[in-house]
Design a protein that fits this description.
ornithine carbamoyltransferase activity, binds phosphoric acid mono(formamide)ester, 5-stranded parallel β-sheet, Rossmann fold, 310 residues, binds norvaline, EC 2.1.3.3, 2 domains, alpha/beta, cytoplasm, amino acid binding, 13 helices, 4-stranded parallel β-sheet
Length: 310
């Protein structure tokens, strides 16, 4: 098994993450200046999707195009992962041909299984447990706005038992960020993730608190973050969730409890009137499209790092 996979945001040490951010910053500057380094010429990324995507597919595919490589998109119906063919056989066959694999899966165990049997690096493009690529781009975005990461307060309001929340908590623990999360009772982070984030925070100088009161979580925050209340795979619970999460909408009133220069973040897709008020996501504090764009720059740097090209 190739030891360089990216399945969890904790797979990288802080120095590796910093190196990826530097490379992402460089690649962003270059592409904005119209310069394209064709350093992935002849390399192929295989993208396996069990769920829909806009940003993840576009950013990976465009990354490969701009770096001179190629990306192949495999839709859920193309390969029937684990149905038409076992996950391990898909990994073995795909990794005999492609140079790197990205997979978006329902169960986290599926992407772990792919990595276990792949001869080439495997990237988690979102599972039920984590969304590490999103968080790489988000950290890049926060650093662009706040010029630092350690010591900031990052508040998440909404579904705690959620891939984005989990990866944010773990990243905060690694990087010395003070992470607070407000979720309804019964929708807190998975205990093993909360424990891991708390443990990491102890050595980095960060902290982690879980509360049910959104005002408490958001007070004095530098960053206020939310995500959909109904993640892919949770659709059957839609009616129930809309009721339970209603007091957790990020409104202009809630944003007033954060620092005056706080930024608002959302990984997208967003549902205005549910997890966020339109005036917040479309307002001056929102950086959601910087986050979306930074998926491209962060993932280019990620692929380049995993392929050992620079
Ligand atoms: N944020 C994100 O991963 O978007 P997609 O689901 O559209 O890829
Ligand atoms: N938590 C969301 C993220 C979408 C990018 C989901 O899993 O659907």
């Amino acid at each position: 098994m190739n030891k360089h996979h990216f399945l969890s945001i904790t797979d990288f040490t802080v120095p590796v993450m910093e190196r990826i951010f530097e490379e992402a910053h460089e690649l962003k500057k270059e592409v904005k200046a119209g310069k394209l380094r064709k350093i992935l010429s002849g390399k192929t990324l295989i993208m396996i999707f069990e769920k829909p995507s806009l940003r993840t597919r576009l950013s990976f595919e465009i990354s490969m195009t701009q770096l001179g490589g190629h990306a192949i998109y495999l839709a859920p119906s193309d390969i029937g992962l684990g149905v038409r063919e076992s996950v391990s056989d898909v990994a073995k066959a795909a990794s005999r041909m492609g140079d790197i694999i990205m997979a978006r899966t329902f169960k986290h165990e599926t992407v772990v299984e792919l990595a276990r049997h792949s001869h080439v690096p495997v990237i988690n493009g979102l599972s039920d447990m984590e969304h590490p690529c999103q968080i790489l781009a988000d950290l890049l975005t926060i650093a662009e706005y706040k010029e630092k990461l350690a010591g900031l307060k990052l508040a998440f309001v909404g579904d705690g038992e959620n891939n984005v929340t989990h990866s944010l908590a773990l990243a905060s623990g690694l990087l010395g960020i003070h992470f607070s999360v407000a979720s309804p009772k019964g929708y807190a982070m998975l205990p093993q993730v909360a424990q891991a984030a708390t443990k990491l925070a102890k050595t980095s100088g960060g902290s982690m608190i879980q509360v049910t009161n959104p005002v408490r979580a958001v007070t004095d925050a530098d960053v206020v973050y939310t995500d959909t209340w109904i993640s892919m795979g949770d659709e059957a619970e839609k009616t129930k969730r809309l009721q339970i999460f209603a007091p957790y909408q990020v409104t202009q009133k809630l944003m007033k409890h954060a620092k005056p220069d706080a930024i608002f973040m959302h990984d997208l897709p967003a549902y205005r009137g549910n997890e966020v008020a339109a005036e917040v996501i479309d307002g001056a504090q929102s950086v959601v499209f910087d986050q979306a764009e930074n998926r491209l720059h962060a993932q280019k740097a990620l692929v380049v790092y995993l392929l050992g090209v620079v």
